[in-house]
Write a structure and sequence with these properties.
The chain is an alpha/beta fold and 260 residues long. The chain is 42% helix and 27% strand. The protein has helices spanning 44-51, 78-88, 106-117, 122-135, 141-146, 154-167, 184-201, 212-218, 236-241, 246-253, 256-259; strands at residues 3-14, 17-29, 33-37, 60-68, 71-72, 89-92, 172-176, 204-209, 221-226, 229-235. It has a six-stranded mixed β-sheet, with helices on both faces. A four-stranded antiparallel β-sheet has the order 2-1-4-5, covered by helices on one side. It is globular. Bound molecules: adenosine-5'-triphosphate.
């Protein structure tokens, strides 16, 4: 296995706040799930946005590299980054469901994305879309395709957004708290399906979460961040069972079912 993504000494500043991310260093192997865990303000969303070249206005990369299959995304020009991003890397946010176009039916948005990114006929795309909706535990996928976003609950819209992202079969899926807004049972189902889908398509997933419990259920490797600093990095087993850093131990102690 070789890394699909390498973060080397990455440091990111905002104008009023230097070092929102400081010297981050980790590698994501092709086909694995890597979780970045940290509390609010640790810099994990900023780190993910940087990989996609979408740091909020004012923010800037002060140093380091973001290597995607060996090419430094920091150095590529706009056009080169656009090509990688559009086809190879997709991102879902905690509130991706809110970004669906309110004036168009789910089906038409879903199929348009598939047409843009994937080979195949409309009929094939439709079949795959329905299957993915069902896998994400959305009852009656046919009706979902016929619905406008306002006819669905927030949790349903979020699962639709995740279904769309997964259907595009990106090589690398960046996921920022993708299940945090869902209720706990649904969250577990969705996590399970994400694990299946990544296996089926050989997808690599980089997930950002405040919940070390979610990370322990999904991830092959875990990075723990606090105040922009990487506190711990290792395999799931190392981090969950033999945490070296006090802060990791503190996060673990807050998840009762992991203590045992
Ligand atoms: N556009 C911005 N300008 C200035 N500071 C920002 C900006 N966005 C975020 N920050 C600050 O950078 C720090 C890290 O934010 P970031 O969103 O990356 O953290 P996070 O760990 O993802 O937290 P959360 O879970 O709350 O999003 C925070 O202290 C935040 O206030």
């Amino acid at each position: 296995m070789k890394p699909i993504l390498e973060i080397q000494d990455l440091t990111i500043d905002y104008p009023e706040r230097a070092g929102v991310v400081r010297n981050a260093n980790f590698a994501v192997q092709s086909g694995e799930i890597m979780a970045v865990v940290g509390e609010s303000g640790s810099g994990k969303s900023t780190l993910l946005s940087a990989i996609l070249g979408l740091i909020p206005a004012g923010g800037a990369i002060r140093g380091g590299k973001i290597l995607y299959n060996g090419s430094d995304l920091v150095k590529l020009n706009r056009e080169e980054v656009r090509l990688i991003r559009g086809r190879k890397i997709a991102m879902v946010f905690q509130n991706s469901g809110e970004y669906l176009n309110p004036r168009r039916k789910i089906g038409s948005q879903y199929l348009e994305m598939m047409k843009y990114h994937l080979p195949g006929t409309k009929r094939e795309h439709r079949g795959r879309a329905l299957e993915m909706l069902e896998r994400l535990h959305l009852a009656n996928p046919d009706r979902i395709m016929q619905s406008y976003p306002f006819e669905l609950s927030g949790g349903m819209k979020q699962r639709v957004a995740l279904a769309i992202a997964l259907s595009l079969e990106p090589k690398l899926l960046l996921a920022d708290e993708p299940t945090s807004a869902l209720d706990v049972t649904v969250q577990a189902q969705v996590v399970r399906e994400m694990l299946q889908v990544r296996k089926q398509f050989g997808m690599t997933i980089l997930i950002v979460t405040h919940n070390i419990g979610v990370a322990s259920r999904m991830a092959d490797h875990i990075v723990v961040m606090k105040n922009g600093e990487q506190r711990e990095y290792g395999t799931r087993q190392q981090v969950i069972e033999h945490p070296q850093n006090e802060y990791t131990r503190y996060l673990l102690s807050a998840v009762p079912e992991l203590e045992a």
